[in-house]
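Example 3.2
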Amino acid sequence: MNENTSNTTAKSENTERAELSSLIWDMLHRLKRFWWVIVLLTAIGAALFYYHSSSSYSPRYVAEATVSVEIVNGGQYANQNTAEQMGNVFPYILTSGALSDVISADLGTKGVPGTISVSSIHGTNLLTVSVSANDPNVAYAVLQSVLKNYPEVAKFVVGQTFLAVIDDSGVPTDSGRNTVLRGSLRRGALIGFVLGLLLLLAYTINTRTIRSEMELRQLLNIHCLGSLPLIKRKRRTSSVSMEINMLHDRNCDNYIEAMRLVRTRLERQLGDKKVIMVTSSIPGEGKSTVAANLAISFAQKGKKVILVDCDLRNPSSANIFNIEGEHPGLASILKGESKPEESMVEIMYKDEPLGLTVLCGGEQQTRSVEIMGGEEMGRLIAKLRERADLVILDTPPSAMLVDAMFLARHADGVVYVVMNDYAKRRFIFKGIEELQENSVTVLGCVLNGAHGRTGRYGYYGHYGSYSRYGYGYGSKDYKSKDQDTVKT
């Protein structure tokens, strides 16, 4: 029991350290982009404090003197002790009004026109007397009055003493303005810098993503099916699909091997399950391409696979497989306007059937929930179960749209796609929670675009059209002069 507790504690501590390390790394990663914000806040803080100090500054001149304390008929120890006593009792003497009255009478004023302070130098018989005032001559006059009258007032407390002036600053000439302003600059810059770091920390926490399989496992506590690498290739013409298709794309051996590993791990999770849906948190994570290539991989192993494009808001299967011509699509089938055979396209490879059939999405639909939420969708999937070994449903993002929840009722399990360093963690958590709250079995997660970090991954700019329906998380194209970053 103790050993189990110890192991659990150690694992928890390791997780916390890993999480802290990840947070620090994320902050440094974002600091490269937003360093100018911290510099700007530092400069603004320094400028504001400098302006406030300079505009509200009132000159203060300080007259100061260092004196030695000698007690009548006393030794060195008595002199040191008396100096410390005089320094300690000075605030009480000053607030009692005795010294103030004497100085006022000496200077002929109604009160003490300055601020007086006295401190003893430890281990010596020396006192430092300071007087600050708005006028340098007044400050020096008050200082001289203190030196003359202080022993007389203090003798009732410490005995008869004599003050010998060792160092006298004379009439002060420097109001200390530059020192005050430099101090204000430093304080303002420090406050601005700290505020910038706090904003960076808050932004990092609010926009944290997932960038490794380890983070995927630790945060989601869900089986990780594997990672798919980021694929880069040269720009093609607009008439050719930019999405990855393992049947036709060259130089993507790493991707093919990674997809085979995902397929093998998924097979272990399937058992007798025949209908799986592939979804993600937000648009732009490459779940349609993952669904298409997963279907290809299963078909290459001899499975009879049907891929159903259920993302009616942004159907993409026809584009991925370069399917030409018009096909009625899923929406037309569910409305009773056509039969499944009219929308299903058999994929050929080297002039032979691959064993993969694609049911295209058809034209874009803005009312996909109404179309797929009826009983007709359930009857269609039941028919597809009988015709194939595996049915893969490519669905809309689960964290933003309810479409996936309607489809999840007909699926045996879910494959969840997470794009590397793309979707915010809160969207990922929300998408997973939505599925689990609907009692959907999550078979595992796939980390997409796991190799290489070049900002936002991928080419799927067309996902931005979700914003037209009020969902507002569109992606943009990030292209270099000679290359496109392609979502896998």
